[in-house]
Amino acid sequence: MTARPSTPCSLTRFLIEEQRAGHLGPDLRLLVEVVARACKSISIAVGKGALGGVLGEAGSPGAASVNVQGEAQKKLDVIANDVLMEANAWGGHLAGLASEEMDHSQPITDFGVDGLPRGDYLLLFDPLDGSSNIDVNVSVGTIFSVLRCPEGVAVPADEHYLQPGTEQLVAGYCVYGPQTTLVLTVGHGTHAFTLDREIGSFILTTRNIRIPEQTAEFAVNMSNQRHWQPPMQAYINDLLAGKTGPRGKDFNMRWIASMVADVHRIMTRGGIFSYPLDAKCEAKGGKLRLMYEANPMAFLVEQAGGAASTGRGRMMEVQPTGLHQRVPVFLGSKGEVEAAVGYHHAHD
Ligand code: AHM
Ligand code: MG
């Protein structure tokens, strides 16, 4: 018997099937569709590069625009933020949204358009992660996380977003690389969808991603080595010692400096990603942001069989204290994350 070619499964069909399976409600399904549509627009803007006049810094010459983190904003940071805001403002699924590029969260009633329907969810996002790579044509991405707006809260404020990662209903990222790929979890596995640029649809290309438990590949910015704390020094020294060292194998290293792209590699072939505390970011608590970088990635990685930790505890159990809070991050292949955490506990 000839096997029938399998019909491609679009994101829309996948989400409808997930809804039928009771994994998410209709509002949440439509919210994911809106975010995915925004990612398609961002993908087009990123793809235009110099032709679209979207490279370089935002603001006027000599007066670069700076976000709440004190970082210079790129034009594409601002464009991606606007695309996500506009796409979600009128959808009717959100009570509010918060972004790396905005000082405070914004309740839907603040968008200045009368009569906008308000939904039950809170959306957090890093509109364009890996900004330092935009101008050099290296992969960047969007990261997002969806929480429920606490009951009885009509107009959500920053404090209503401060829920641990275990409360996330949906998390995802979209990597804008040679392919545009959306990786998504609604709490029942992690799945990858590749954008078919000819028909403009995300097509399911990997169902139930599984991250190998063991790995011989690590990702870290080695230029910070001298600034690390003793547990991180000890951990990386042992990886670098190779076959004859305490870990008994040779490790390879990769660092793209776009978390989305580094995590996507780990989703594909395993590995450990780390951005530990160092003397430069210690006072801030770390480099990467908990609410819209570390937590959504932790949810995706755990749903793919991996692990995510601060080095001392499970990432998704951190009780947030600020919208733009930073944390040390270790995530990826479970066995390797546990090894890195072991070095931290050994130094406590
Ligand atoms: P961004 O959201 O402002 O782009 O910053 C986050 C990025 C991550 O994508 C990446 O892992 C890290 O910063 C790279 O940092 P560094 O330049 O210190 O290596
Ligand atoms: Mg980022």
TrEMBL record:
Localisation per UniProt entry: Cytoplasm
Pathway named in the protein's UniProt entry: Carbohydrate biosynthesis
Reaction catalyzed: beta-D-fructose 1,6-bisphosphate + H2O = beta-D-fructose 6-phosphate + phosphate
Name of the coding gene: fbp
GO CC, any one term: cytosol
Pfam families: FBPase, FBPase_C
Enzyme Commission number(s) from the entry: 3.1.3.11
GO biological process: fructose 1,6-bisphosphate metabolic process; fructose 6-phosphate metabolic process; fructose metabolic process; gluconeogenesis; sucrose biosynthetic process
Residues involved in Mg(2+) 2 binding: D126, D129, E293
Domain (Fructose-1-6-bisphosphatase class 1 C-terminal) ranges: 211-341
CDD domains linked: FBPase
SUPFAM superfamilies hit by this protein: Carbohydrate phosphatase (SSF56655)
An MF annotation (GO) of this entry: fructose 1,6-bisphosphate 1-phosphatase activity
Listed name of the protein: Fructose-1,6-bisphosphatase class 1
Cofactor requirements of the protein: Mg(2+)
Organism annotation: Lysobacter arseniciresistens ZS79
PANTHER family assigned to the protein according to its UniProt record, in alphabetical order: FRUCTOSE-1,6-BISPHOSPHATASE-RELATED, SEDOHEPTULOSE-1,7-BISPHOSPHATASE, CHLOROPLASTIC
